[in-house]
From TrEMBL:
This is DUF2236 domain-containing protein. One of its GO terms (molecular function) is oxidoreductase activity. Pfam families: MPAB_Lcp_cat. Residues 46-273 form the ER-bound oxygenase mpaB/mpaB'/Rubber oxygenase catalytic domain.
Protein backbone atom coordinates (compact mmCIF):
# COMPACT_ATOMS: atom_id res chain seq x y z
CA UNK A 1 0.00 0.00 0.00
CA UNK A 2 2.87 2.37 0.86
CA UNK A 3 4.54 1.69 -2.49
CA UNK A 4 1.24 2.37 -4.30
CA UNK A 5 0.66 5.55 -2.29
CA UNK A 6 4.17 6.86 -2.97
CA UNK A 7 3.86 6.07 -6.68
CA UNK A 8 0.44 7.72 -6.93
CA UNK A 9 1.66 10.80 -5.07
CA UNK A 10 4.67 11.07 -7.38
CA UNK A 11 2.50 10.80 -10.49
CA UNK A 12 0.13 13.41 -9.10
CA UNK A 13 2.90 15.86 -8.30
CA UNK A 14 4.45 15.47 -11.76
CA UNK A 15 1.03 16.02 -13.35
CA UNK A 16 0.30 19.16 -11.37
CA UNK A 17 3.75 20.70 -11.15
CA UNK A 18 6.02 18.92 -13.61
CA UNK A 19 8.25 17.97 -10.69
CA UNK A 20 8.13 14.84 -8.52
CA UNK A 21 8.76 16.84 -5.33
CA UNK A 22 5.81 19.10 -6.09
CA UNK A 23 7.85 22.31 -6.22
CA UNK A 24 8.57 23.58 -9.76
CA UNK A 25 11.34 26.14 -10.17
CA UNK A 26 8.98 29.08 -10.62
CA UNK A 27 7.68 28.65 -7.07
CA UNK A 28 11.02 30.03 -5.84
CA UNK A 29 9.99 33.43 -7.25
CA UNK A 30 7.00 33.49 -4.91
CA UNK A 31 9.42 33.72 -1.98
CA UNK A 32 10.96 36.88 -3.46
CA UNK A 33 9.55 40.38 -3.41
CA UNK A 34 8.82 43.08 -0.88
CA UNK A 35 5.05 43.16 -0.42
CA UNK A 36 2.13 40.91 0.52
CA UNK A 37 0.82 40.67 -3.03
CA UNK A 38 -2.62 41.49 -4.36
CA UNK A 39 -4.47 39.24 -1.90
CA UNK A 40 -2.60 37.77 1.05
CA UNK A 41 -3.54 35.40 3.91
CA UNK A 42 -7.20 35.41 4.79
CA UNK A 43 -8.23 36.48 1.30
CA UNK A 44 -10.91 34.75 -0.73
CA UNK A 45 -8.40 34.07 -3.52
CA UNK A 46 -5.99 32.28 -1.16
CA UNK A 47 -8.82 30.18 0.22
CA UNK A 48 -10.25 29.16 -3.15
CA UNK A 49 -6.99 28.60 -5.00
CA UNK A 50 -5.37 26.88 -2.07
CA UNK A 51 -8.21 24.37 -1.84
CA UNK A 52 -8.39 20.94 -3.45
CA UNK A 53 -11.54 21.82 -5.42
CA UNK A 54 -9.23 23.58 -7.88
CA UNK A 55 -8.54 20.16 -9.41
CA UNK A 56 -12.18 19.81 -10.43
CA UNK A 57 -12.47 23.49 -11.29
CA UNK A 58 -9.72 23.12 -13.88
CA UNK A 59 -11.64 20.34 -15.63
CA UNK A 60 -14.89 22.33 -15.58
CA UNK A 61 -13.18 25.48 -16.87
CA UNK A 62 -11.54 23.66 -19.79
CA UNK A 63 -14.84 22.05 -20.77
CA UNK A 64 -16.72 25.35 -20.67
CA UNK A 65 -13.99 27.23 -22.54
CA UNK A 66 -14.50 25.03 -25.62
CA UNK A 67 -18.00 26.39 -26.23
CA UNK A 68 -16.81 29.75 -27.58
CA UNK A 69 -15.75 29.09 -31.20
CA UNK A 70 -13.14 31.85 -31.08
CA UNK A 71 -11.53 30.44 -27.96
CA UNK A 72 -11.76 26.94 -29.41
CA UNK A 73 -10.09 28.11 -32.63
CA UNK A 74 -7.19 29.53 -30.64
CA UNK A 75 -6.74 26.24 -28.80
CA UNK A 76 -7.10 24.21 -32.01
CA UNK A 77 -4.75 26.38 -34.08
CA UNK A 78 -2.07 27.24 -31.54
CA UNK A 79 -2.18 24.88 -28.58
CA UNK A 80 -0.19 21.63 -28.49
CA UNK A 81 -2.58 20.05 -26.03
CA UNK A 82 -2.65 16.72 -27.89
CA UNK A 83 1.16 16.48 -27.91
CA UNK A 84 1.84 18.16 -24.58
CA UNK A 85 -1.33 18.33 -22.47
CA UNK A 86 0.56 18.61 -19.18
CA UNK A 87 2.64 21.48 -20.55
CA UNK A 88 -0.49 23.52 -21.25
CA UNK A 89 -1.91 22.61 -17.86
CA UNK A 90 1.26 23.56 -16.00
CA UNK A 91 1.41 26.91 -17.82
CA UNK A 92 -2.10 27.77 -16.68
CA UNK A 93 -1.35 26.61 -13.13
CA UNK A 94 1.81 28.73 -13.06
CA UNK A 95 -0.11 31.92 -13.89
CA UNK A 96 -3.00 31.19 -11.52
CA UNK A 97 -0.79 30.31 -8.57
CA UNK A 98 1.74 33.10 -9.14
CA UNK A 99 -0.88 35.84 -9.31
CA UNK A 100 -2.58 34.41 -6.22
CA UNK A 101 0.45 33.99 -3.95
CA UNK A 102 3.33 36.11 -5.30
CA UNK A 103 4.08 39.74 -4.58
CA UNK A 104 2.66 42.32 -7.00
CA UNK A 105 5.82 42.71 -9.09
CA UNK A 106 6.15 38.98 -9.74
CA UNK A 107 2.40 38.68 -10.38
CA UNK A 108 2.52 41.47 -12.96
CA UNK A 109 5.59 39.96 -14.62
CA UNK A 110 3.87 36.58 -14.90
CA UNK A 111 0.75 38.22 -16.33
CA UNK A 112 2.97 39.98 -18.85
CA UNK A 113 4.40 36.61 -19.89
CA UNK A 114 0.91 35.31 -20.56
CA UNK A 115 -0.07 38.45 -22.46
CA UNK A 116 3.09 38.22 -24.57
CA UNK A 117 2.25 34.64 -25.50
CA UNK A 118 -1.21 35.80 -26.54
CA UNK A 119 0.30 38.38 -28.92
CA UNK A 120 0.97 35.74 -31.58
CA UNK A 121 -2.33 33.84 -31.25
CA UNK A 122 -4.54 34.98 -34.14
CA UNK A 123 -6.52 33.55 -37.04
CA UNK A 124 -10.08 33.12 -38.25
CA UNK A 125 -13.03 30.97 -37.19
CA UNK A 126 -16.63 30.27 -38.11
CA UNK A 127 -18.98 31.77 -35.57
CA UNK A 128 -22.27 30.25 -34.39
CA UNK A 129 -24.00 31.76 -37.45
CA UNK A 130 -21.54 30.20 -39.86
CA UNK A 131 -19.82 33.51 -40.66
CA UNK A 132 -16.03 33.77 -40.79
CA UNK A 133 -14.57 36.09 -38.19
CA UNK A 134 -11.01 37.06 -37.27
CA UNK A 135 -9.80 36.34 -33.76
CA UNK A 136 -6.87 37.22 -31.57
CA UNK A 137 -6.26 35.93 -28.07
CA UNK A 138 -6.18 39.53 -26.83
CA UNK A 139 -9.68 40.32 -28.17
CA UNK A 140 -11.83 41.76 -25.35
CA UNK A 141 -14.61 39.22 -26.00
CA UNK A 142 -12.32 36.20 -25.81
CA UNK A 143 -10.47 37.49 -22.75
CA UNK A 144 -13.81 38.11 -21.06
CA UNK A 145 -15.10 34.63 -21.93
CA UNK A 146 -12.04 32.85 -20.59
CA UNK A 147 -12.01 34.96 -17.42
CA UNK A 148 -15.72 34.42 -16.78
CA UNK A 149 -15.69 30.64 -17.26
CA UNK A 150 -12.55 30.22 -15.17
CA UNK A 151 -13.85 32.41 -12.34
CA UNK A 152 -17.21 30.63 -12.44
CA UNK A 153 -15.58 27.19 -12.45
CA UNK A 154 -13.35 27.89 -9.46
CA UNK A 155 -16.14 29.57 -7.52
CA UNK A 156 -18.80 26.92 -8.13
CA UNK A 157 -16.39 24.05 -7.49
CA UNK A 158 -15.27 25.56 -4.22
CA UNK A 159 -18.86 26.15 -3.13
CA UNK A 160 -19.51 22.44 -3.73
CA UNK A 161 -16.34 20.93 -2.31
CA UNK A 162 -14.43 23.59 -0.38
CA UNK A 163 -14.53 25.38 2.95
CA UNK A 164 -16.25 28.68 3.63
CA UNK A 165 -14.92 31.60 1.55
CA UNK A 166 -13.90 34.68 3.56
CA UNK A 167 -16.31 37.41 2.49
CA UNK A 168 -18.33 34.95 0.45
CA UNK A 169 -18.69 34.48 -3.29
CA UNK A 170 -18.87 38.20 -4.03
CA UNK A 171 -15.50 38.83 -2.43
CA UNK A 172 -13.86 36.05 -4.44
CA UNK A 173 -15.25 37.32 -7.75
CA UNK A 174 -14.24 40.88 -6.90
CA UNK A 175 -10.71 39.86 -5.88
CA UNK A 176 -10.15 37.72 -8.95
CA UNK A 177 -11.28 40.58 -11.20
CA UNK A 178 -7.85 42.01 -10.41
CA UNK A 179 -6.20 38.99 -12.04
CA UNK A 180 -8.38 39.42 -15.12
CA UNK A 181 -7.47 43.07 -15.39
CA UNK A 182 -3.76 42.20 -15.24
CA UNK A 183 -4.08 40.32 -18.55
CA UNK A 184 -6.35 42.87 -20.21
CA UNK A 185 -9.91 41.81 -19.28
CA UNK A 186 -12.31 44.73 -19.56
CA UNK A 187 -15.39 45.08 -17.37
CA UNK A 188 -14.52 42.03 -15.26
CA UNK A 189 -17.39 41.03 -12.94
CA UNK A 190 -17.08 42.13 -9.31
CA UNK A 191 -19.91 40.10 -7.78
CA UNK A 192 -21.41 36.65 -8.14
CA UNK A 193 -24.52 38.19 -9.73
CA UNK A 194 -22.43 40.05 -12.31
CA UNK A 195 -20.49 36.88 -13.03
CA UNK A 196 -23.67 34.87 -13.63
CA UNK A 197 -25.11 37.64 -15.80
CA UNK A 198 -22.02 37.86 -18.01
CA UNK A 199 -21.91 34.09 -18.47
CA UNK A 200 -25.59 33.98 -19.39
CA UNK A 201 -25.16 36.92 -21.78
CA UNK A 202 -22.78 34.86 -23.93
CA UNK A 203 -25.35 32.09 -24.21
CA UNK A 204 -28.33 34.33 -24.88
CA UNK A 205 -26.41 36.25 -27.55
CA UNK A 206 -26.02 33.04 -29.56
CA UNK A 207 -22.23 33.30 -29.33
CA UNK A 208 -21.61 29.73 -28.17
CA UNK A 209 -21.72 26.62 -30.31
CA UNK A 210 -20.85 22.94 -30.33
CA UNK A 211 -19.13 21.29 -33.30
CA UNK A 212 -16.54 18.64 -34.18
CA UNK A 213 -13.73 20.66 -32.59
CA UNK A 214 -15.63 20.87 -29.33
CA UNK A 215 -16.38 17.14 -29.42
CA UNK A 216 -12.70 16.37 -29.99
CA UNK A 217 -11.58 18.60 -27.12
CA UNK A 218 -14.22 17.19 -24.77
CA UNK A 219 -13.15 13.65 -25.66
CA UNK A 220 -9.52 14.53 -24.91
CA UNK A 221 -10.41 16.13 -21.57
CA UNK A 222 -12.51 13.09 -20.72
CA UNK A 223 -9.76 10.59 -21.58
CA UNK A 224 -6.43 12.34 -20.93
CA UNK A 225 -3.11 10.47 -21.14
CA UNK A 226 -2.69 9.94 -17.40
CA UNK A 227 -1.11 7.01 -15.60
CA UNK A 228 -3.34 3.99 -14.93
CA UNK A 229 -3.16 4.57 -11.21
CA UNK A 230 -4.58 8.09 -11.54
CA UNK A 231 -7.31 7.41 -14.09
CA UNK A 232 -9.97 6.03 -11.69
CA UNK A 233 -9.63 9.11 -9.48
CA UNK A 234 -9.63 11.44 -12.48
CA UNK A 235 -12.77 9.84 -13.88
CA UNK A 236 -14.61 10.51 -10.65
CA UNK A 237 -13.48 14.14 -10.66
CA UNK A 238 -14.44 14.47 -14.34
CA UNK A 239 -17.91 13.15 -13.52
CA UNK A 240 -18.10 15.60 -10.62
CA UNK A 241 -17.14 18.47 -12.91
CA UNK A 242 -19.81 17.46 -15.43
CA UNK A 243 -22.44 17.21 -12.70
CA UNK A 244 -21.58 20.73 -11.52
CA UNK A 245 -22.15 22.31 -14.96
CA UNK A 246 -25.67 23.71 -15.59
CA UNK A 247 -27.76 21.57 -17.91
CA UNK A 248 -27.90 24.07 -20.80
CA UNK A 249 -24.11 23.95 -21.13
CA UNK A 250 -23.87 20.20 -20.52
CA UNK A 251 -26.27 19.65 -23.42
CA UNK A 252 -24.09 21.75 -25.72
CA UNK A 253 -21.05 19.76 -24.64
CA UNK A 254 -22.85 16.47 -25.32
CA UNK A 255 -22.38 15.34 -21.72
CA UNK A 256 -24.81 13.73 -19.31
CA UNK A 257 -24.53 13.67 -15.53
CA UNK A 258 -23.77 10.32 -13.97
CA UNK A 259 -26.51 8.51 -12.07
CA UNK A 260 -23.94 7.63 -9.42
CA UNK A 261 -23.31 9.91 -6.39
CA UNK A 262 -20.34 11.62 -8.05
CA UNK A 263 -20.59 14.85 -6.03
CA UNK A 264 -20.02 12.77 -2.90
CA UNK A 265 -17.43 10.61 -4.66
CA UNK A 266 -15.50 13.68 -5.78
CA UNK A 267 -15.44 14.95 -2.20
CA UNK A 268 -13.87 11.66 -1.08
CA UNK A 269 -11.26 11.76 -3.85
CA UNK A 270 -10.31 15.34 -2.94
CA UNK A 271 -9.89 14.32 0.70
CA UNK A 272 -7.57 11.51 -0.35
CA UNK A 273 -5.53 13.87 -2.50
CA UNK A 274 -5.30 16.40 0.32
CA UNK A 275 -4.02 13.67 2.65
CA UNK A 276 -1.37 12.68 0.12
CA UNK A 277 -0.21 16.21 -0.64
CA UNK A 278 -0.40 17.67 2.86
CA UNK A 279 -2.41 20.55 4.35
CA UNK A 280 -0.81 23.39 2.34
CA UNK A 281 0.67 23.81 -1.12
CA UNK A 282 4.33 24.57 -1.80
CA UNK A 283 3.19 27.89 -3.31
CA UNK A 284 1.35 28.94 -0.17
CA UNK A 285 4.33 27.86 1.93
CA UNK A 286 6.60 30.01 -0.29
CA UNK A 287 4.28 32.99 0.13
CA UNK A 288 4.26 32.60 3.91
CA UNK A 289 8.06 32.42 3.88
CA UNK A 290 8.12 35.76 2.04
CA UNK A 291 5.66 37.30 4.49
CA UNK A 292 7.63 36.02 7.47
CA UNK A 293 10.77 37.63 6.03
CA UNK A 294 8.95 40.94 5.56
CA UNK A 295 7.09 40.91 8.88
CA UNK A 296 9.79 42.46 11.13
CA UNK A 297 10.14 45.56 8.93
CA UNK A 298 6.71 45.88 7.35
CA UNK A 299 4.44 44.88 10.19
CA UNK A 300 3.18 41.91 8.20
CA UNK A 301 2.10 38.97 10.34
CA UNK A 302 1.22 35.81 8.36
CA UNK A 303 -1.97 34.21 9.58
CA UNK A 304 -1.71 30.70 11.00
Amino acid sequence: MTRFTDSWRSHLLVTLSGNSDGRPGWVDKIETGDNAGYFGPGSAAWTVHGGMATMVAGIRALLMQTLHPGAMAGVHDWSRYHEDPLGRLSGTIQWLVTVTFADTVVAERESGRVAHFHDRVAGTYLDARGEERPYAAGDPELLSWVHVVFTDAFLQSHLLWGDAIPGGADRYVSEWATAGELIGVQNAPHSAAELAAQLEAFRRAGTLKSDARVADAVRFIRYPPLSRGMLPFYRIMFAGAVASIPREYRDMLGLKPSRLPVIWGTRIVLRIVRTLLGPTSTSEDAARTRLARLAPTAGLVPEA
